[in-house]
Amino acid sequence: MSMDLLRFITCGSVDDGKSTLIGRLLYDSKSILVDQLEAIERASKTKNQGDGGGIDLALLTDGLRSEREQGITIDVAYRYFQTPVRKFIIVDAPGHIQYTRNMVTGASNCQLAIVLIDARNGVVEQTRRHSLIASLLGIPHIVVAINKMDLVDYAQDAFSDICIQYAELAKKLNVSQVSFIPMSALNGDNVVDRSANMPWYEGPTLLEHLETVELSNDTNLTLPRFPVQYVIRPQTTELHDYRGYAGKINSGAFRVGDAVTVLPSAQTSTISRIEFNEQDLTEAEAGQSVILHLFDDIDISRGDLIVRSDTQPIVAQNVEGMLCWMDTKELKVGSKYVLQVGTARTRCSIREIPYRLNIETYEHVEEVESLKLNDLAKVVLRTAQPVAFDTYALNRTNGGAILIDETSNVTVGAVMLEGET
Amino acid sequence: MDYLDQLESEAIHIMREVAGQFERPALLFSGGKDSITLVHLARKAFRPGKFPFPLVHIDTGHNFQEALDFRDWLANSLGERLIVRYVEDTIREKNLKEPTGRNASRNALQTFTLLDTIEEFEFDACIGGARRDEEKARAKERVFSVRDEFGSWDPKRQRPELWNLYNGRIHKGENVRVFPISNWTELDVWNYIQREKIALPSLYFAHERELLVRDGKLMATAGGVIKPEPDDQIVTRTVRFRTVGDISCTAASESQANTLDAVIAEIQATRISERGETRMDDQMSEAAMEDRKKGGYF
Ligand SMILES: Nc1nc2c(ncn2[C@@H]2O[C@H](COP(=O)(O)OP(=O)(O)OP(=O)(O)O)[C@@H](O)[C@H]2O)c(=O)[nH]1
Ligand SMILES: [Mg+2]
Fold this sequence. Notes:
- The structure holds two protein chains of two kinds.
- Chain A is built from seven helices and 24 strands.
- Chain A has helices at 18-28, 34-48, 65-70, 100-107, 125-136, 156-171, 206-212; strands at 4-12, 77-82, 86-92, 112-118, 141-147, 177-182, 225-232, 244-248, 253-255, 259-263, 267-276, 279-281, 283-285, 289-294, 305-308, 314-325, 331-332, 336-341, 344-357, 364-366, 370-371, 376-389, 400-404, 411-420.
- Chain A is of the alpha+beta class.
- In chain A, strand 23 (400-404) and strand 24 (411-420) form a beta hairpin.
- Chain A is globular, with a radius of gyration of 24 Å.
- Chain A has three domains: 4-212, Rossmann fold, CATH 3.40.50; 225-308, Translation factors (Elongation Factor Tu (Ef-tu), domain 3); 314-420, Elongation Factor Tu (Ef-tu), domain 3, CATH 2.40.30.
- Chain A is 18% helix and 37% strand.
- By secondary structure, chain B is an alpha/beta fold.
- Chain B folds into two domains: 3-189 and 287-294, Rossmann fold (3-Layer(aba) Sandwich); 201-282, no CATH class.
- Chain B contains nine helices and ten strands.
- Classes of the chains: A alpha+beta, B alpha/beta.
- The interface between A and B is large, with 66 and 56 residues.
- The structure holds guanosine-5'-triphosphate and magnesium ion.
- Residues 14-20, 58, 72-73, 94-96, 147-148, 150-151, 184-186 of chain A line the site of guanosine-5'-triphosphate.
């Protein structure tokens, strides 16, 4: 009974109906428990102050006091549900530009993004920004949910116009699949149940789409990578010589007997044992958390990357990548940060910002000296120690990195590494 | 990989990040099924080594004896260090006013003891068994949840947390609450317990006991924690506990489920959430959990 797991996010501009859509999806698929429903019914009444409005389904995910007061989403909420076909992890992102970093947080682990568009407004700046972020993060599937169709009389023209508008934008993005669904999250049209108001639409409802979309495996299966998290050394009498490297296989597979290289030091050895739950395995693959043992007693510690010797990653100190800047403090050429790739951390400085992306046109803006909150840009970094990585396009789990501010300790940037310069 | 394997591996990875990134971590052990699951995951993460953290229990003094016995047995059989700190002592030392009245609970006072314990041992990370599906404020929390020196959660200033990269860098005095089973649902936990044959306190299975009926909820009379009032009806019923916590705020459910299969079948069929059915502390106000987290609760 192995079931698929689909992680998806809702994104798009403020008030386009993301939270309402999730609420509707859960409500119509009967995934809301009675006490939770009663709680949001109560909260809806308080909020509407008895003006007779129905229940506000957005309250299912807008769980913070300030979110409820302001009627907006501030940080991502996670919801879990399953149908007989699939298990889903839903991430509800905020649309407000101020909270873009929270959307980035939520999107980083998703395989599918639902981009909502208000049928009255069409594509707006946040639609472009979120679509671009989804594409930079390598989310392969995009569903464009053209919402609030009830406010445009369920007109097919309104839908088609926006499809054309979005298709134009999508050409400049790197997404493998875009689908369009007209809906009303408020009334439930085409969310779980087919809409009687839009007989002209013949495609799947949102839930049908989510249940059937082909899940391309986005884990890289050919590049064996193992970031060392922790060294297990019991140092007891029976286990005096025991030395195991604990970690999670990022990508590819390892077998006992594989020749491996430890990076960045480039020492080599051979896998002598693969251990999980105190049992020996002959082989382990991407996604598994195991303990590796090597034949040779070499110096390995947290931050090292063990790779199969016949598939070497990039090891470099001058690296470039696409950066999503997430701090209110500006990033400037010359600023220093801590770069974390896998379990490795090293100091780095920003050498150059070759260009920033214009959110409206996706064109390159050159000669940039600094970046502001939410800017997306190409950056060149110089690291204090060599870092071992793959390009993000090739291997998402070994090409994503974060920048940490050394004084505040906050995560201030996300970098999709592209290579050595 | 099966989704339970995926969840398991994610949790092991998070625990090892704690071991790798912090100097003095701890695992907050409440005696409930979620923290028992954490202990099981810690074995998978660190055996044949010892856990790189002690188990820490904040005892309200209002716990079920079965849960305490189970806690001691578990720590003992694993040969791991158990630290217990008592809310009772905090009340005495700090001269705190113990809540009185009908639904009085020491649950809120736990936070003081927890913060004192963090200070006493200088813990920089505390692993907890909270899940995002439990409650609407928890649904918003990061896996690595940075807390200031007062243990306070600021939901408006959470750090970005991308991919499986966790940033545990903190200033002195701050600490991080870490939730390895954030993405598990109640049912996932039960399915995992079954698959892994994890032992649980008998409280989780149907048994006969004396209870009092209050506001429609069945509350245990055990230990005399809840003081009966004239209109409370005392009954004997076959019940089990869906969550095991402080006696004063954990209700029992009528049930005949005395095997894991039967418990799982009940949870699959239920239309009431775990906390909705059993927790009195969340039902006090709209934002009870958020407020407690802001106050330093885990
Ligand atoms: N008429 C109509 N109103 C809708 C529809 N979907 C959502 N709304 C309304 O639009 C408003 C905003 O909805 P939300 O779901 O909170 O929007 P959101 O996209 O989650 O907003 P943020 O998270 O703050 O970015 C609410 O008043 C909803 O009731 C729809 O299909 N039709
Ligand atoms: Mg919202």
